[in-house]
Amino acid sequence: MLGKHFNLTGGFTFTHFSNGATRVPNMGINLVAPRVGIKYQFKSRTEFIINEIPKYSYKWEYIALIAGSSKQLGFMVDDNLDTTYVAETYGIFTFSTGVNRQISYKVKFGAGLDFSYDGSYNSYISYENNKTTARLNAGNGNKLAIGAYGSFELVVNKLSVVIQPGWYIYREEWKVPETASEGISIPRRKPGGSYQRIGLKYHILNNVFAGINVRAYNFSIADYIEWNIGYRIMWK
């Protein structure tokens, strides 16, 4: 505070521009900057009124949700000395279930499991004349995966900010060829062994919620955007 009307503010900002890999190429831009400012308050400051807040009664909640997504993989094709890129779009579907413990009016911790089908996993293409001729699957073509995650939620009334680091506990081994060959192109990105979510969740009804998450891997690379809807059961 700088007197009755002025405030000095400061901090750092981090901004990430990306399309969440819904389209490729998706290079992304990260901006980090310091922030300093002066804020003027037109009315004089009022005295703070301190109200007693009742002690929070811990609550448990069981959640189940379904999520749908799509992502693109970029492939380089080289034919007759003409190099270009093509993109293929794949569907992703997830069923997620878990348990949260709300320990205050603002904070929840939890853990859960993800059961996913990722159409892009272990996928590559064959091509001719700079056009895709077939989508190919490496290994057994098994695109199912199971992951375990931890969860943190910052609760603001009906809205929550969700952060979830996760690790795969079941997924077929990556068997896409390491290098491309004539008429064969491999993805430009290889998936990581762990995954992360950051997003928003909003309670439409007391026990029904919807949300949007950015799904990433290697704690730095956006993989796709998840849209979800779910239900919770609460008890003390």
What does this structure look like?
- This protein is mainly beta.
- It has a single domain, classed as Porin (Beta Barrel), CATH 2.40.160.20.
- Helix content is 0%, strand content 65%.
- It has no helices and 13 strands.
- It has an eight-stranded antiparallel β-barrel with strand order 3-4-5-8-9-11-12-13. Strands 7-6-10 form a three-stranded antiparallel beta sheet, with no helix packed on it. Strands 1-2 form a two-stranded antiparallel sheet.
- A hairpin with a 4-residue loop joins β11 and β12.
- The mean pLDDT is 86.
**Percent of residues in helical segments?**
under 10%
Number of domains: 1
> What's the total number of strands?
13
**How do the strands of the widest beta sheet line up side by side?**
3-4-5-8-9-11-12-13
CATH architecture: Beta Barrel
Largest sheet: 8 strands, antiparallel, barrel
Rg (CA only): 23 Å
Q: Output the structural class.
A: mainly beta
Question: Tally the helices: what do you get?
Answer: 0
Mean pLDDT: 86
What form results from the Cα inertia axes?
flat
Beta-strand residue percentage: over 45%
CATH topology: Porin
* Assembly of the depicted chains: single chain
> Which residue ranges are poorly predicted, with pLDDT under 50 across at least 5 consecutive positions?
none
- The N- to C-terminal Cα distance equals 42 Å
CATH class: Mainly Beta
H-E order: EEEEEEEEEEEEE
